[in-house]
Amino acid sequence: MICISCNDEDTTVSCIPNVSVSAQYNLNLPAYSDLNMPNGYVELAPDGTNGSRGMIIVNTGNGFNAYDRNAPHLCPSSDTTLEVYEDLKIVCPHDGAEWLLRTGQPLNDATQGRTPRKFLAHLNGSVLTINY
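Now predict its structure.
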């Protein structure tokens, strides 16, 4: 008998879409006004410029973090789009994996030690540009 298996980690990493992101957000617009305050965040649905599942953007007080909404530890399915919970955590609805909203740091073992994919964010005046 021959047994061949894949490493679950390799399979999970290879099935997450690696899409480019190039988006600009005017923080003077009402839809993004929460980003003007430390700990303020927005959850964005996909629109063709911000990844395959959209992104989460948070004002850390020292800048901005932008995360892909694809769960980094699971292959995409209907219930693996990351969501913000209690204004403090990013949560995967599939298995309860949790990360700190401000830093992306894993909070439980369900994350398998992985962090959400982070995009580069740069503020110029009132326009936040995000690229990957």
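The beta strands are 22-26, 41-44, 55-59, 64-68, 83-85, 89-91, 98-100, 118-124, 127-131.
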